[in-house]
Amino acid sequence: MGKTTLENLKLGIFVVIGTILLLLAAYLIGNRQNMFGTTFEITATFKDASGLQNGNNVRFSGINVGTVKKIEMLNDTTISVYMIIEEKMQKHIKKDAIATIGSDGLVGSMLINIVPGAGNTKLIEPGDELQSFSKVATQDMMNTLNTTNENAALLTADLLKVSHALTQGEGTLGKLLHDSSMANDLQQTITNLKYTSNHANSTMAELNKMVRSINFEESTAGVLLSDTASAVKMRDVISNLDASSREIKSMTQNLNIIIEGIKKEDGAINYLSKDTALVGHLKRTMLNIEQGTESFNMNMEALKHNFLTRGYFKKQEKKQKKEAKELPD
Amino acid sequence: MLDLSVTKFVKSKLVEPIKHFFVQIGELSFFAGRFFKEVFTPPFEFKELLRQCYQMGNRSLVLVGVTGFIIGLVMTLQSRPTLIQFGAVSWMPNMTGISIVREIGPVITALICAGRIASGIGAELGSMRVTEQIDAMEVSGTNPFKYLVVTRILATTLMLPLLVVFGDLIALYGSALVENLKGDVSFQLYFNTVFDALSFGDVVPATIKSFFFGFVIGLVGCYKGYYSKKGTAGVGLAANTAVVMASLLVFVVDFIAVFVSDIFYEL
């Protein structure tokens, strides 16, 4: 009897644990499909369901928040997708959220991604319809790829022609490829370039040395480069220069006018500059003046020796000597 | 003379087995019909039912557990390289979860039970038939069918689904262990992914299927033992054919179950 009771006890434990495990598994699976717990329903309308199925996940910002409950075809371009969303997520989803159909990984099943909108609108309510955005379908992608392929075919055909011409040595590039002397020239050029760049290097090094040797604190260049006050002064100088140049300009203009006047009008200067006979007259006059001064000098000498004026000249001589003596002191 | 021998050969090698096959199916159907008639009419042999449940359920648990664990372990180890090649090793829990719960768990458990339980029942009832204990029961007024057959078939029908649950869980644990050791997948992530991948469409048909597996195993074991031929050879034959037929019927039932559940759960 005791043995039977023990057996029954063990059997009871076995059955209870087995049943609990089965129910637990059922609960876990149901929980994943939002069969338990409080939920609410929203919809979204798509043009293409892209293989979406009932029970597929609904994600909001990457978190599983619900499942697809029903997919209904309204007309040939409108498909309504009903989604069950966990109620605790209601406070996060806003009315301007956008629903898109995506896939879970490269080979994963399809799912609905709800992306938060940019605005600050009201929270979503049960039964609301979300905006939807249909991504590029595979067919469209294939169409684009097809066009790309055709273009690629044309491109490769052209490339083939180009490469053919190149191998045949046609055109500039072809000659470039085939001309061996050009290669030598190029090599020479490069060698020269190298040599030049070496020189440039050393020149730069020297320049660097020079620049380094400049005393930036005290030299004119340094002051020019670093002193802000001199910058202001320089600006003044430049503005003054500007003003001066303007004045010079106006002056030259005036001068021009004067010269023009001289050229045109019958003034003295014009007469002077143009009359050649006057030069002869002037020369003679100058000669007369010279002769005059000579005879004046002689007169003066005669005056010095005259008894009437001799006293005055001696006085002058003494005075001059006295001044000469005082100066070296 | 030649014609006669050919006819005899054809008759013995072709006609007889076919006839035997249909006879067996007919007898089995009658046997099942009698079971359904007897199971709902009192008196009910509860104590014997519990004893049988213990014998078939608890006593098979270790065997089912070890088998399940090894199957889960081996399946994961074997499919890992291929999945890695495809870069889909993260789909391992989904794959093993669905295949174990849907198919491998119930079928392996049923086959193990067919080997252990059907042969046991066949040998037990066969020897009872041979030693005329069944006849003695009938004489003493006890309904041997009710006492021996109904309890056993009910016990296997009820116990097998539970064994399948345990077997599935242990197999998944074995698979998770490999993933945990070789692939750095935590147990939590593994089981989360498994339950993510599973749906009621996987669990419910598998559970219903297990009831039928249990029923078939009990039915075949009892049928073979109950109608065992006389002699010790009859007992051995009863045990042997019970295992073979039960295993075969498990696959037939599996095929039908998958076929039907595919119609119901077609996605």
UniProtKB/TrEMBL annotation, chain A:
It holds the Pfam family MlaD. The keyword Nucleotide-binding does not apply. Residues 41-117 form the Mce/MlaD domain. The chain crosses the membrane at residues 12-30. Signal peptide: none annotated. Keywords: Membrane, Transmembrane, Transmembrane helix. InterPro entries: Mce/MlaD, MlaD_Phospholipid_Transporter. This is Phospholipid/cholesterol/gamma-HCH transport system substrate-binding protein. It comes from Kriegella aquimaris.
UniProtKB/TrEMBL annotation, chain B:
Pfam families: MlaE. One of its GO terms (cellular component) is ATP-binding cassette (ABC) transporter complex. The chain crosses the membrane at residues 60-77, 153-178, 198-223, 235-260. GO terms for molecular function: phospholipid transporter activity. It comes from the Bacteria. Keywords: Membrane, Transmembrane, Transmembrane helix. Belongs to the MlaE permease family. This is Phospholipid/cholesterol/gamma-HCH transport system permease protein. It comes from Kriegella aquimaris.
